[in-house]
Amino acid sequence: MDDVERLEPGTIKVGTKQTIKTVEQHKASLVYVAQDADSRLLNRIVQICKQHSVKVVFVDTMRNLGKTCGIEIGTACAAVVEE
After folding, report:
1. What class does CATH assign to 11-81?
2. Domain ranges for the chain
3. DSSP secondary structure string for all residues of 26-46
4. Through-space distance between the first and last CA atoms of the chain, rounded to whole angstroms
5. What share of the chain is helix, strand, coil (3-state, %, to 5)?
6. Which terminus in the chain has less CB density within 10 A, N or C?
7. Cα separation, 3 vs 6, whole angstroms
8. What is the pLDDT of residue 11?
9. Average pLDDT of the residues in 10-31
10. Contacts 24+ apart (CB under 8 A), 67-73
């Protein structure tokens, strides 16, 4: 995740529910998933992304993904919103 710049708030949706919603609405261009997230959740997100042909990038920890998204807590996933 070190090579990824900080994601701007207007270009991302953070959290599981928001990420799934964004992918299902065909508005996501890319999804970041933390490798230390619950495996059931991880599998669900990856499956949904696969169904909608959205690329998934794995990040080492929820904490690092949260920091990249500009929040002070960890997050399991985040979707980059298409413009």
Report:
1. alpha beta
2. 11-81
3. T-EEEEEEETTS-HHHHHHHH
4. 23
5. 40, 25, 35
6. C
7. 10
8. 87
9. 94
10. 68/1, 68/4, 68/6, 68/7, 68/32, 69/7, 69/9, 69/12, 69/14, 70/6, 70/7, 70/8, 70/9, 71/14
Distance CA 19, CA 28 (A): 8
Q: Are 71 and 11 in contact (CB under 8 A)?
A: no
Q: Which two tokens stand for residue 20?
A: 């799934």
Look up tokens 């599981």; give the residue: 16
Instruction: Quote the tokens at residue 66.
Output: 């949260």
Global pTM exceeds 0.85: yes
Tokens linked to 4: 């990824």
Q: Is the pLDDT of residue 49 over 90?
A: yes
